[in-house]
Design brief:
single chain, mainly alpha, 10 helices, 2 strands, transmembrane helix
C-alpha cells in the first residue's frame, strides 16, 4: 500500500509543474538535479555508516529494493495507460519490468553495491519521464547482461511449456541483446504465448519498417497480456528471493 501511494515519477512531476517551466531541456536539467543530488548525499552517508554496521547495511538494501519495486509499480502504471493504445506496447513494457526493475538493480547491488543500483534506478526514472537519448543509452548499457539472463530464464519457461527448443531470432540474438536488451525477451515471451512479435525497426536517415518474429496464427489480446504479466510477476518474485539468498550468503562468508 505504501509503495502504491508513493510515486517517484509522480512526485517529480508535481514539483516540476509547480515551477511552471515549459522548456523541456530546462525541465530535464532540474529533474537531474532534484534526483541525483539528494541521491549522492544519501549514498555518501549510507556508505560511510553501512561499512561499519550490518543492520544499517540491511536498511540500505531495503531502501534500494524499495526504489526498485517503486519503479516496478510505475512501469505497470505505464502498461495500463498504453493498453488503451497498443497491446504490443503493453507486452513490451511488461518485459521491461523484469529487467529494469528487478534483475538489473539486484545485479548492481550484488556486484557493485547499493550505490550503483540507486544511481541506475534514478537514471531509469528520469528516462521514463523524459525519454532522453543519453539516459536511454546509459540504461541500455546497464541492461545488456541482465537482458541476456532474463532471456535465458524465459527460454527455460518456453522449453517447459512448449516442449520445444526452437525459437527463430533470425540470427540476431546477440545483435538484439546489445542494441535492444528487451527485444529477445519480447520474442521469447510472445513465443510462450504462441503469438507473433512485431517490432518497429527504426533507423536514422533510413526508412523504418516492422519486423515480425514467429509464425503463429493466434492474435495478441488482453488474455495473453494478463497471462504474460502473471508469468513476469512470478519471475520478479523469484528474482527477489534469489537476490536475498545470494546477498545473505555473500554477507555471511
Amino acid at each position: 500500500m505504501l509503495i502504491g501511494k508513493i510515486s517517484l515519477q509522480g512526485a517529480l512531476k508535481r514539483i516540476l509543474n509547480k515551477t511552471k517551466i515549459k522548456n523541456k531541456i530546462q525541465n530535464q536539467f532540474i529533474a537531474l538535479i532534484l534526483m541525483i543530488v539528494p541521491c549522492c548525499v544519501m549514498i555518501a552517508c549510507l556508505d560511510i555508516v553501512s561499512s561499519q554496521y550490518r543492520v544499517i547495511r540491511e536498511i540500505y538494501n531495503a531502501i534500494t529494493v524499495f526504489f526498485s519495486i517503486n519503479l516496478y509499480e510505475e512501469e505497470y502504471e505505464l502498461c495500463k495507460y498504453y493498453s488503451r493504445i497498443k497491446l504490443y506496447r503493453v507486452f513490451q513494457s511488461i518485459s521491461v519490468v523484469l529487467i529494469r526493475s528487478f534483475i538489473t538493480p539486484f545485479l548492481c547491488i550484488i556486484i557493485f553495491g547499493n550505490s550503483v543500483a540507486l544511481i541506475y534506478l534514478y537514471i531509469a526514472v528520469i528516462h521514463s519521464l523524459y525519454k532522453n537519448n543519453v539516459l536511454k543509452n546509459i540504461v541500455k548499457i546497464f541492461d545488456v547482461i541482465p537482458g541476456i539472463i532474463g532471456s535465458f530464464i524465459l527460454y527455460l519457461v518456453y522449453v517447459y511449456k512448449t516442449r520445444s527448443f526452437k525459437i527463430n531470432f533470425k540470427n540476431r540474438f546477440f545483435t538484439n541483446a546489445i542494441k535492444n536488451p528487451y527485444l529477445n525477451i519480447n520474442i521469447i515471451g510472445a513465443a510462450i504465448e504462441n503469438v507473433n512479435m512485431y517490432y518497429c525497426e527504426e533507423k536514422k536517415h533510413q526508412i523504418s519498417y516492422i519486423e515480425s518474429y514467429g509464425e503463429y496464427k493466434k492474435k495478441i489480446n488482453i488474455y495473453y497480456i494478463e497471462e504474460y504479466r502473471e508469468l513476469i510477476d512470478i519471475l520478479c518474485f523469484l528474482s527477489f528471493i534469489i537476490f536475498y539468498l545470494v546477498n545473505y550468503l555473500l554477507c555471511k562468508y
